[in-house]
Design brief:
NADH Oxidase, single chain, 189 residues, 7 strands, two-stranded antiparallel ribbon, globular, alpha+beta
Length: 189
């Protein structure tokens, strides 16, 4: 007797109970996710000697290229007010990265639904570590309102519900934790 999977090739993922579990069921143990490891990882030290850097415009291009290399689909830079609620560190700039998201991580708590969150955390973590190696302050933190910061950085516009809408991905986008830094950059917005 041949083994048969409960799902035929013609059925959609929407009808697949395994896929539904993968996308929508939160893990019973958060240590089964990378998310908690990255969010709780200690930041490294700032290199004591600052690197010689180019103009803010060229440095911004380098930062965006590096974030793209790490996997960011969209990258923008916002200039911040030190007293802004979205600026917990009081630093002058926020680097905002976004990754495509087939499922909204806020509505899909399963391991599969959280893949964009994990990808975004990786990008923010490594990008902030690279900036610290250049001798500048950088910390990856969840912004109070990351989607507003993303709109400020010209990654897209906010819809009536306050959700980021981009030209390339529509609402199928996840805004990663912001990288707050004092690296001299040229803001997009």
């Amino acid at each position: 007797m041949a083994f048969r999977f409960p799902r035929s090739e013609k059925a959609s993922r929407r009808d697949d109970p395994y896929w539904n579990f993968f996308i929508n069921t939160p893990p019973a143990d958060l240590t089964n996710t990378v998310t908690e490891l990255l969010r709780n990882a200690p930041e490294g030290n700032i290199f004591p000697t600052r690197a010689d850097i180019h103009t803010p415009e060229i440095t911004s291009r380098h930062v965006k290229d590096m974030a793209g290399y790490f996997g960011a689909a969209l990258v923008g830079i916002a200039e911040l007010n030190p007293d802004d609620a979205n600026n917990p560190e009081g630093l002058p700039f926020a680097i905002i990265c976004a990754v495509p998201a087939d499922y909204d991580p806020r509505q899909s708590p399963g391991i599969g639904g959280q893949v964009p969150v994990q990808n975004g955390l990786f990008i923010s973590f490594v990008l902030s570590a690279w900036i610290r190696e250049l001798g500048f302050r950088a910390t990856a933190k969840r912004a109070v309102d990351g989607e507003t910061l993303a709109a400020q950085a010209k990654l897209g516009a906010l819809d009536n519900a306050g959700r980021l809408v981009t030209a390339q991905f529509g609402t199928h986008i996840h805004v990663a934790d912001a990288v707050f830094t004092d690296l001299p950059l040229a803001a997009d917005g």
